[in-house]
Design a protein that fits this description.
102 strands; five-stranded mixed beta sheet; extended; 10 helices
Length: 1458
């Protein structure tokens, strides 16, 4: 125990003592107080003494004075003043210990009340003084603990703690509620809110939930509470140090004035049953119980059961508990339990194999309880060839840097041996899985290393075989990788029990711990070894840690495994050891004072699997259970070490494929295998499982056929009186609903005489069982009352008696109408019909029965007589009727009434409910004719019960006459063959399967059917080869003529031949005949048809006894046309031997309105010459030939009249020649132009708008504009004519309309009409509103800009760019000026303004001409001269460069002077 735990124990002990002291000090002192001094006072004295000893031990560090109480033998420190140990002995109080003066007093018994009162008063005063002393001690303890927490780094981390937990609430509907709690933890925890174990974050919110966290106060606010908000709410907090949760319930009530039945909210499960009125004994019944269920991994599964209480108790809910394999289930993220409207439901949201097992529902109401159990089987998710997923991933060892996980192997290996397993891990809160092992491990336990201390992880396992990897197992529960000693710090200390012994020895300081003890190997495999030991007995005043040392076999050298970091917990897993090698291990304990002596050594610890694969189980015994299950027993495996359980496999008889019967190991050696098929034979085998693997299979069991367990039949029901006379009565009844797996062999009838209320003894009416469900009870007394009961019997025994009938008086019936029919049966239930049978009434009345009426009613409306409907309006003479017009999926009951001359009699007892449905596997009678012409009927049953028989009957009564039919039955198939079918065989034939509830099929052989079958029989006896076609002909590609006919089917021995004009045709070089049995085709091919082949053609076919023939007449025009067609195909064949046209010349207009002439040729080669001609002249142009596709094209761009003419394309080579012509004149040319116009019109773009300085322009572009395309414009659906105001035109491929100087009147809808010769194509624009205004504003802007451009000042010409002139000459430059108003003119020289003088003369003439004259120009006058003109619309500058040069003579003269 750590020092922190000791201090916590002391603190709790002192707090407990303080509370007890305060309680005693508050008591009043009176004369009877002495009687309250009991053993409680004695315990209190011990506690106070111990507190004093702790205080001295923590403070002064001195020895405590320990004395032993002579009464109880306990030790404590009694040196503190005022501490006593009290005992009550013979009604007196004796003071033991205490102060020195008190030790010598009171040695005798004090019996007077005054003395007792004084002692009680003294005791109370001592308690008051003791409490003050205790407060001082508590203060010192808290200071010491606070100092210790600050010094201990590990104490800074702690798991979540709820200082204020959630509180349950009950609220009214539509109100708001808030759950609040306070959590303390470090590091800061992750918090999640749940409703009924489902995260609230995953629920539909819509602002209903508000979750907040302010300074550690977590709140969940639920707005507008509704009834469905009732449930359990929880908050879960988790960090690296652990996790914690708090729970609370919310009940939402609806105000209804007085409480009614709706007071209990549906779906809410109370934690305790509601009030049951005293004196009321409630019976509890379970209805609609869940059955054995099969599910697949990943599905959602619900189990439910209706719970009925009798008598119904208002506002009472029974206690409902669910169990899996005997272990109670609780709601979590996988399991949801609901109680709603008398039904308990368990829902598994995501089924895994861990959920397989025996589920039990236990419902209790007061002292009464009922339970129901059924097995749930979970199949592996389909993954062909891959093994099933492992299951039950758990932790067997947890430490700070490793976790050992274990799992169970799957039952299904996918058809091949499981190689091993992969283990995946992920940190809690992430979705990223990491594989822990590179190679599969075979052992079902594995250590996971490389973990980060303090973090939480989840694990899953996948199985591997040669085909692939299984689905992953269910994710394990989260686990934190922590040292076990650190985990103890987060565990709350239990309240102090007082069992602390304080010795007189002084605490030792500076002591080195002793040797650890009990060193052992917990687990050893090929991959790791786990060592465990106990701490040393002598370890000083500090905590200890450990070093582990190992020594290889044959060596004396010890090496320390964890030299850098000692262990805190007494357990270690060792990895990376050599398999098969032996090691020795020992442990040393250490503390701050040093390392202790080593522990005892474990010798010869070899690395390898200590756990062996279990031995196979023993012999298997099987037994019948139900029609879909069997009971299996087996001898257990002798290997019991760490046995996980057993797996059972099954296979069908005659098959080698084994299937697992379940997917979760079972520990019992008895198991009920479900999901089997009745009537099938199975063999079973068993294998055992432990962590090392799966055992070999047990010996195979003996084969067992799945049949229901044999039992006596259930009780008959529906007793009815069929006739009554003076001394006897005839009874009828219905067969038992359950036959016990065997046919009912008979019935026993008992009767009882009733005299007033006195019941006579029961007497047997028959000593031998009767086969029919009707019996006449004899020797009765007239006018006496009797009651009856019936029992059924089969080979298993006599069943229970039926319900006792009502009292019936034995008296003569004198009714004129007949009695009720009896023994009603139903057969041939289909989705819309059923056949009803009955027996004639025993009592027929005063005249014979003339017919019957049948009534029907839906099963759930039988009590409403208005719901009964007559099936037949006219009586039926027979005692059977096929009732039609039923609604599929509904259940019906029927009854029958007999009629005679006097009227209609009493209705029979109604039948049991019959569901209108066609059961799976239902087969009807098959009626056909065999090859010999015999008519037969066949019935084949589906999954017939054992020992059942196939019974034929005619009109549901008479057995078939052996003189007219032969019956052959084999297995589940029976066949009836008519010996000579005629009118005597008319009737309804039916075949009934005995031992079933009316499984049968029937066939009505009426006159029409008789006629059809006789005709078919005749055709079978006189067979004709059936034909699929008439005699036909076709001309083949090479000009041959083929005559052919096809039969439905021909045998290999069939023959076929042709006859021409009564002469048989024989094969020669020109004619070939053939008969193909596979296709049924008989044909004749004539290579070259000649005039002498005219006439009548006949084909004759013979196949065994069957024959047939067909004729075709070819004369006159028919033959001449055939002859021409044959010659044409022959010529075409010869043409195609060389280069030829596959498609002749044609034309096509492309999207760009260009025309191409095209054809397709074939059988060309490189030497093939292709030439195009127009009007018999060879033409050149854009000619292309695609050799791969054979397409040849000739492009005619922008077709015009000049392109009209006769086009021809020729191709030839050494194999032959072919040509094709195309006339492009008149009609063809017009058609081309119309197509060009159409494509051009279609290509017109939508009208666009453009503003100009003159007005608004509408325009559209076409791909190509032909002259034949008629263009017109409309405004407001009226055609526009070109005028000054509006002009239109065509420019290249642009069609435009110009609106000059537009006004408001020009607003409206404009349209462009394009007529291609056949139809109009319109393009429209609505020039109104914003569109017009924007265009008009742009027009105004452009207009003003144009005016400004026209009138702005500018230099229009006259100035040269460069002027070169001789010095002394005169320069005269003149330029034209334009501008309105007249612009201003300014001259510049080298960017400086100049003015007119005698040397430079500037002139400006009437605003049109500006001149520039330099007289006697000098070299200094050289430079750049500019003229700038400017008016209000703009300005412009003209530049001229003047260069002055000196003549050569003058230049030389100057040089001479120089």
């Amino acid at each position: 125990m750590t020092s922190l735990q000791i201090h916590r124990g002391r603190s709790e002990m002192m707090a407990h003592s303080s509370q007890r002291s305060a309680a005693y000090s508050s008591q009043k002192v009176h004369s009877a107080a002495a009687s309250r001094v009991t053993s409680t006072s004695h315990e209190q004295g011990h506690k106070m003494a111990l507190q004093h000893s702790f205080a001295k031990g923590l403070g002064a560090r001195r020895s405590v004075q320990v004395r032993t109480c002579p009464e109880c033998g306990r030790s404590a420190d009694y040196s503190a003043p005022g501490y006593w140990c009290w005992h009550q002995f013979d009604g007196a109080v004796k003071q033991l210990g205490g102060s020195s003066s008190a030790q010598t007093q009171h040695s005798t018994i004090m019996t007077r009340d005054i003395q007792r009162a004084r002692e009680t008063l003294q005791y109370a005063s001592n308690l008051v003084r003791g409490r003050a002393y205790q407060l001082e001690v508590n203060k010192k303890v808290e200071e010491h603990l606070r100092h210790w927490r600050n010094m201990n780094k590990d104490g800074m981390l702690y798991g979540p703690e709820f200082t204020i937990k959630l509180r349950s609430h009950t609220v009214w509907e539509k109100s708001n509620i808030q759950f609040a709690c306070t959590i303390q933890a470090w590091p800061r925890p992750t918090v999640c809110w749940y409703k009924n174990m489902v995260p609230i974050e995953g629920l539909p919110n819509d602002g209903k939930y508000k979750i907040e966290n302010r300074f550690g106060i977590h709140t969940l606010e639920i707005l507008d509470c509704q009834l469905e908000d009732t449930g359990q709410y929880s908050i879960c907090a988790i960090n690296a140090q652990g996790e914690n949760a708090s729970y609370a319930s919310l009940v939402v009530k609806r105000y209804r004035g007085d409480l009614g039945e709706d007071y209990i909210t549906p779906g809410y499960v109370f934690d305790f049953p509601l009030f049951v009125p005293s004196g009321v004994m409630v019976d509890i019944h379970l209805l609609n119980k869940f059955d054995v269920t099969f599910a697949t991994e990943g599905q959602t599964l619900s189990l439910g059961c209706n719970i009925v209480l009798h008598p119904p108790t208002k506002l009472y809910q029974p206690e409902v508990l669910w169990f899996l394999n005997g272990k109670q289930l609780h709601p979590d993220k996988w399991v949801n339990m609901v109680w709603s409207e008398g039904q308990a439901t368990l829902t598994l949201s995501h089924v895994n194999k861990e959920d397989e097992g025996l589920y039990t529902l236990r419902a209790q109401a007061g002292r009464r309880w009922e339970k129901h159990s059924a097995y749930v089987f979970v199949r592996d998710a389909e993954l062909t060839g891959n093994p099933g997923a492992p299951l039950d991933v758990e932790y067997s060892e947890v430490n700070k840097d490793y976790i050992i996980i274990s799992w169970k192997q799957p039952s299904d290996n996918g058809g091949s041996t499981i190689i091993g397993y992969f283990i995946d891990k992920r940190e809690v809160g992430t979705d990223h899985w990491l594989q822990c092992n590179d190679t599969p491990v075979k052992f079902a336990r594995y250590p996971i290393t490389g973990l980060v201390e303090g973090r939480s992880y989840e694990f899953r396992v996948r199985a591997v075989n040669r085909c692939g990897i299984s689905h992953p197992s269910r994710v394990s529960a989260p686990i934190a990788s922590m040292d076990p000693s650190d985990k103890m710090k987060n565990v709350s200390i239990a309240p102090w029990t007082g069992q602390i012994i304080v010795t007189e020895e002084e605490p030792e300081e500076g002591r080195i711990p002793g040797a650890p003890t009990d060193l052992r190997i917990l687990e050893a495999t090929k991959n790791y070894i786990v060592l465990a030991w106990k701490p040393p007995e002598f370890r000083g005043n500090e905590g200890v840690m450990y070093f582990v040392e190992k020594c290889a076999a044959g060596s004396t050298s010890w090496c320390r495994i964890n030299d850098e970091l000692p262990l805190k917990s007494p357990r270690l897993a060792l990895f990376d050891l050599e398999e098969g090698k032996s090691y020795a291990f020992r442990i040393r304990a250490c503390n701050s004072n040093g390392v202790g002596t080593p522990s005892d050594v474990i010798e010869h610890a070899s690395v390898g699997d200590r756990l062996e694969v279990p031995a196979p189980p023993g012999e298997i015994l099987t037994s019948r259970n139900t029609g879909s299950s069997a009971i299996i027993w087996w001898e257990p495996t002798p290997t019991t070490s760490e046995l996980v359980g057993y797996y059972i496999d099954a296979k069908l008889s005659g098959s080698d494929h084994w299937e697992p019967c379940h997917n979760k190991p079972v520990m019992s050696t008895r198991f009920a295998v479900h999901g089997l098929h009745e009537g099938q034979t199975y063999t079973f085998r068993v294998k055992a499982v432990n962590a090392a693997g799966l055992s070999d299979y047990s010996p195979e069991s003996e084969s067992i056929t799945i049949l229901p367990a044999i039992s006596a039949p259930s009780s008959p029901h529906g007793i009815v009186i069929l006739e009554s006379v003076k001394d006897s009565m005839v009874l009828g009844w219905k067969a038992p609903r359950a036959t016990g797996g065997l046919d009912v062999t008979g019935y026993y009838v008992d009767y009882q005489m009733m005299k007033n209320t006195h019941e006579g003894p029961w007497q047997e009416a028959n000593l031998k069982p009767i086969a029919e469900r009707m019996f006449r009870v004899m020797d009765l007394k007239e006018n006496s009352d009797y009651r009856f009961r019936v029992r059924a019997v089969n080979m298993a025994g006599v069943g229970p008696p039926s319900d006792i009938s009502d009292c019936i008086t034995c008296e003569e019936w004198t009714l004129a109408v007949p009695g009720p029919p009896y023994s009603l049966q139903t057969q041939e239930a289909r989705r819309d019909s059923v056949v009803l049978l009955w027996h004639m009434p025993v009592y027929v009345g005063r005249s014979p029965v003339t017919g019957y009426y049948v009534d029907k009613c839906e099963a759930d409306k039988v009590n409403d007589y208005l719901q009964w409907q007559a099936v037949n309006e006219v009586t039926v003479k027979s005692r059977f009727l096929k009732v039609t017009g039923l609604v599929e999926g509904r259940s019906y009951v029927f009854r029958v009434r007999a009629e005679n001359r006097a009227g209609v009699g009493k209705a029979s007892e109604m039948t049991d409910a019959v569901l209108a449905e066609t059961r799976p596997g239902t087969k009807d009678l098959v009626v056909d004719v065999d090859d010999d012409g015999h008519v037969y009927m066949i019935f084949e049953g589906d999954q017939l019960p054992p020992d059942s028989k196939l019974l034929w009957s005619k009109n549901y009564e008479d057995p078939l006459d052996p003189s007219r039919v032969d019956i052959e039955t084999k297995g589940n198939k029976t066949k009836v063959v008519f010996k000579g079918l005629d009118e005597n065989d008319l009737g309804v034939y039916s075949c009934l399967v005995s031992g079933t509830d009316g499984v049968s099929s029937s066939y009505n052989l009426d006159e029409d059917e008789l006629k059809r079958l006789l005709e078919k029989s005749y055709n079978k006896k006189h067979p004709v080869v059936p034909l699929l076609s008439k005699l036909q002909l076709e001309v083949l590609d090479e000009g041959q003529v083929r005559f052919w006919i096809q039969a439905e089917k021909l045998s290999a021995q069939s023959k076929g031949g042709f006859v021409l004009n009564d002469s048989e045709v024989h094969d020669d070089n020109r004619i070939k005949t053939n008969c193909d049995p596979k296709t049924g085709i008989v044909e004749m091919i004539v290579t070259e048809l000649k005039p002498e082949d005219e006439g009548t053609y006949t084909v004759q076919i013979q196949d065994g006894r069957a024959k047939n023939e067909a004729t075709l007449v070819l004369i006159e025009d028919d033959f001449k046309n055939l002859l021409k067609e044959s010659a044409f195909h022959r010529a075409e064949y010869l043409r195609k031997q060389g280069p030829h046209f596959v498609e002749y010349l044609s034309w096509e207009v492309m999207s760009d309105c260009n025309v191409i002439l095209k054809s397709k040729v074939a059988n060309t080669k490189k030497d093939t010459i292709i030439v195009w001609y127009k009007d018999e002249r060879e033409v050149q142009g854009d000619i292309q030939h695609d050799e791969q596709s054979g397409v040849c094209t000739f492009h005619v761009p922008q077709l015009a009249k000049k392109d009209a003419g006769l086009y021809r394309m020729s191709l030839w080579d050494d194999r032959g020649k072919d040509s094709s012509t195309l006339e492009v004149t008149e009609e063809a040319f017009d058609a081309m132009m119309k197509e060009i116009c159409r494509i051009s019109a279609i290509s017109a773009t939508p009208l666009k708008l453009q503003s100009t300085e003159e007005g608004i322009k509408l325009y559209s572009f076409v791909t190509y504009y032909p002259e034949e395309l008629k263009v017109s414009w409309t405004f407001r659906n009226e055609k526009l004519a070109s005028k000054d105001k509006i002009r239109s035109g065509i420019m290249s491929n642009q069609l435009w309309l110009q609106i000059n100087e537009p006004t408001e009147k020009d607003q409206g809808k404009y349209a462009l009409e394009l007529f291609d010769g056949k139809e109009k194509h319109m393009r429209e624009m609505d020039l109104t509103g914003d569109v017009f205004q924007e265009a008009y504003q742009e027009f105004q802007r452009l207009k003003q800009a144009a005016i400004a451009e026209r009138n702005r000042a500018r230099v229009t010409g006259g100035l040269p760019d460069v002027v070169t002139i001789q010095k002394g000459k005169t320069v005269n430059l003149r330029c034209n000026i334009w501008g309105d108003p007249v612009p201003e003119v300014t001259w510049f020289r080298n960017e400086r303004e100049i003015s007119s003088d005698n040397h430079v003369v500037l002139s400006y003439d009437k605003g049109k001409h500006a001149s520039f004259i330099i007289n006697k120009i000098e070299t200094e006058d050289s430079g750049k001269y500019s003229i700038s003109v400017k008016n209000k619309y703009g300005s412009e500058t003209g530049d001229v460069t003047v260069s002055v040069y000196i003549p050569l003579e003058e230049e030389h003269g100057q040089e001479d002077e120089d």
